[in-house]
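re the bet — no i am not wrong, look at it urself. input seq straight from the record:
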Amino acid sequence: MTFNAAIPTLEADAQFGAYIACPQGSAKAAIIVIQEIFGVNPGIRQKCDKLAAQGYLALAPDLFWRLQPEVSLDPDVEIEFTTALDLMGRFNQDAGIRDIQAAINFLRDSEGTAKVGCVGYCLGGRLAFMTAARTNIDASVGYYAVGIDGLLGEKDAIANPLLLHIPTADGFVPRETQAAMHAGLDHHPRVTLFDYDGLNHGFATETGQRRNEKAATLADSRTAAFFAEHLG
């Protein structure tokens, strides 16, 4: 894999790679694409390319760089799935949020994009929620975010719009967790939840066996409308 951007850490003591896709002409805004547990793999890079085609500057930071730089794994290959689970278990999520803030700063200061949003998947969906609560991001989207019930204590810190896509048959997000998300967030003035009945984790992936074309198209259309409203 070839990353085409390097982002300084907040401490400016190191830098980490990122994949960046640029639109033709001036960017509407910038969107950070937050990886699943499989790294900045072809599917995540394709997400960036699709956002660039919509007029956004899209950047996917290499959040596993402290563990293993340039991770790119295939969720449909069992041994690579196992490797991804191990990386997730060792990943420092607080450090990851600081790296996302560094990416926000990079996009605003070096790339000149005043408005910055983020969209994350799986682990990235969880990190999108944390980004909404802990950074100065302008708008956030999470697909099949894991473990949000344990983060609901941070909901009052969400200052800008957040959209969460929830598949109801998610094998990694039990019904009890989904119920807690709705109970804690349905009445939050800046949070919107969409359920996808009978869908499983990973339904909006760009490649592989998990994708559900109809549901992915619907969710992505909602995401596009959300970013058009809040990053315009």
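see?? The domain at 5-230 is CATH 3.40.50.1820 (Rossmann fold). told u. also The chain has one domain: 5-230. so pay up
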